[in-house]
Write a structure and sequence with these properties.
- There is one protein chain.
- The chain is an alpha+beta fold.
- The protein has one domain.
- It is globular, with a radius of gyration of 20 Å.
- The two termini are 29 Å apart.
Length: 350
């Protein structure tokens, strides 16, 4: 862990088991929020669903984590719960619940162009919107290049684009490379839906991007909690690191104030690598999978933003994820939730 004298304005320290633990808790430009809301799905009409959550808690770590997330979630409005309830029709088991959750996500979150606005950025999610976030801040997004190629060209072969990506990164003024990469990303953009985009903050991860460190992609994957990027499940993963300003997101729809939000359990498919955030926190926090002792655990900000077309100018780095995450999901969640248990109102429900 860094010395206390090295902390940035985005950090504060908290004592845990006798150690000072670094929390990269919000850039100061994000307003601190206090939201008064009951734990998710505690109303009588959700009694059967809540019973299912308690049952699933006894399952394997992946299923248990998903149930824990719903039990801990504090940030949902009643209107948002009601919207979700329209898809969750008394599931009898985990399979039913996963199927119905995906129906909600496809019907309200991963919308196609012309189908409206993802519920994440509507007034139903008003307490979690971030209209006054500083637009000069840089964001970072990690994408699986093979998945981009598949969606752009229908083929996971990345060979045709890698050379031009490398040329562009080495020389951002290489017009030939710019043209090739722009065409590739335009093809990808045309085949994307409007799902909210999870991003971190450049200022919190730039320390991992030493040009001489060929493990940067592994380290960044761990810091951002992207546990689904595990090469042991299919070989090394080619990744593209994108960097752009919040202002670039705003520019897509300048008159729309609902462009960024704090993540909740309803904003994506189920994931054991996601953890909800207590009401008193002003941004989401990634599940840090970096190897090391508990006292070195670092929290990193995470937010969602609206759809944005990727551009060649956003391409910052290309690399490969070659190692499994430094912590298991179970270990990282144990540490993460132990740190936050005093801030969660309903931690004792677990």
């Amino acid at each position: 862990m860094r010395n206390q004298g090295d902390k940035t304005p985005c950090e504060h320290l908290k004592t845990y088991r006798g150690h000072s633990v670094t929390f990269l808790r919000s850039c100061p430009e994000i307003k601190f929020l206090i939201i008064h809301q009951k734990m998710a799905f505690q109303r009588d009409e959700f009694s059967n669903f809540f019973k299912l959550l308690k049952i699933v808690q006894g399952f394997h770590i992946e299923e248990r984590s998903i149930a824990e997330n719903l039990i801990l979630e504090e940030r949902l409005t009643e209107a948002r719960e009601d919207s979700y309830a329209g898809y969750i029709t008394s599931p009898q088991d985990l399979g039913d619940w996963e199927f119905e959750h995906e129906k909600y996500v496809s019907g309200k979150i991963t919308l196609l162009h012309g189908q409206g606005t993802p519920e994440t950025f509507t007034d139903l999610n008003n307490p979690n919107l971030l209209p006054q976030i500083d637009q000069d801040q840089f964001l970072v997004r990690v994408e699986n290049l093979a998945e981009l190629a598949k969606r752009a060209r229908g083929d996971v072969d990345i060979a045709p684009i890698v050379d031009d990506l490398k040329k562009l990164i080495e020389d951002p003024t290489d017009h030939a490379a710019i043209d090739v990469v722009e065409e590739f990303l335009s093809d990808y953009n045309r085949n994307r839906d409007l799902r909210p985009i999870f991003v971190g903050f450049w200022g919190e991860v730039k320390d991992l991007l030493d040009e001489n460190d060929d493990r940067w992609a592994n380290k960044l994957r761990d810091r951002l909690g992207l546990g689904h990027y595990d090469p042991m499940e299919g070989g090394a993963i080619p990744v593209l690191l994108l960097r752009y300003r919040i202002a670039d997101v705003v520019a897509v729809q300048p008159d729309e104030l609902n462009f960024a939000a704090i993540p909740t359990v309803l904003d994506s498919s189920m994931s054991s690598f996601f953890c909800p955030t207590p009401q008193a926190w002003a941004e989401g926090q990634t599940l840090n999978l970096t190897p090391g002792p508990e006292s070195d655990y670092v929290f990193n900000c995470e937010i969602l933003h609206r759809y944005i077309k990727y551009k060649a100018s956003y391409v910052y780095r290309f690399g490969w994820i070659t190692e499994s995450p430094g912590k298991t999901c179970e270990e990282a969640r144990r540490i993460h939730l132990e740190y936050l248990k005093d801030d969660f109102k309903y931690f004792d429900q677990l």
